[in-house]
Amino acid sequence: MKVISLINMKGGVGKTTMAVNICDCLATRYDSKVLLVDIDPQFNATQCLMSGDEYVKYLKAGKDTILSIFEKDVRAYASSIDGPSTKTAKKLDEIKACNIKKNFDLIPGNLNLFQIEMASGEGRENRLSKYLKGISEQYDFVIIDTPPTPSIWMTSALIASDFYLIPVKPEPLSFTGIDLLHGIIEDKRENLDLKIKCLGIIYTMVEEDSIVFRQAKASLSSGRWKDYQYKKFMHKRTVIAREQTNGGFILSLDKDECKVALVGIVKEMLKRIER
């Protein structure tokens, strides 16, 4: 089982879109068993895959979310669904993912993740890694959709991951975020003795003929990131955003260029994993 975190220090770069559709491509085109973990407290990936009504029903049924992995003992919390209550934490081996489609499962996100406080040295940041190790025989790939800010949740994802992948919107501010991310990950790698490796940079929301895109490629081609850029990239298409909010996937679109781009990205990602 390979665990891959999608990370960027800047929001709005298509990170969640890539996470969801990489999972779908692996499950559909490669017949791989895939788990998507939504560890972003904004739970955008979950909202792409479950309607509001489905999510509320899921929570009311007491089913598991990312919160289940990080809860310990008994605690009081305020739910946006049921109001104030208490909850007894499950053992990690009792936590079950939600099936989205054939070969594709989800650990849904949860807004109440914001309410969990982790004390230094408590070890709770290792719980995601422990959970994934316990289900390693069930999946070929785990994709983690991370928050766009340094946090205990990002640290937990890095600890649990073998690789990280950086989706980037070609604009000047994104480049600053990449270098900042590199510094943060290198610091975590040294302090936590992580073995995580970078799988590269994927351009998203690209307007191919724009000056900005050409400048972006030129800028990253002359520095430390020159060997990390993927050949294929995701075009800026309104239909992708529209279909995503309706639970659609890129492989289901009529836009062949989007399908070709996604398949090419996943193919290159798999080659980079094997290096």
Task: Please describe what this structure looks like.
- There is one protein chain.
- The protein has a single domain, classed as P-loop containing nucleotide triphosphate hydrolases (Rossmann fold, 3-Layer(aba) Sandwich).
- Helices cover 40% and strands 17% of the residues.
- It is built from 10 helices and 9 strands.
- Helix 7 links the parallel strand 8 (163-168) and strand 9 (197-203).
- Helix 1 (15-29) packs across helix 10 and helix 5 packs parallel to helix 6.
- The radius of gyration is 18 Å and the shape is globular.
Structure summary:
With 275 residues, the chain is α/β, with parallel strands linked by helices.
The computed structural class is alpha/beta
Spans with pLDDT under 50 lasting ≥5 residues?
A: none
The sequence of SSEs as H and E is EHEHHHEEEEHEHEHEHHH
Distance between the termini: 16 Å
Mean pLDDT: 86
Number of domains: 1
Query: The CATH topology is what?
Result: Rossmann fold
**Which architecture per CATH?**
3-Layer(aba) Sandwich
CATH homology superfamily name? P-loop containing nucleotide triphosphate hydrolases
Instruction: Going across the biggest sheet, name each strand in turn.
Output: 5-6-2-7-1-8-9
- The proportion of residues forming helix, as a percent range, comes to 25-40%
- Radius of gyration over C-alpha positions, nearest whole angstrom: 18 Å
Taken as a percent bin, the fraction of beta residues is: 15-25%
Report the CATH C-level class.
Alpha Beta
For the report, how would you describe the main beta sheet? 7 strands, mixed
Query: What shape does the CA trace take?
Result: globular
Number of helices: 10
- Kindly state the number of beta strands: 9
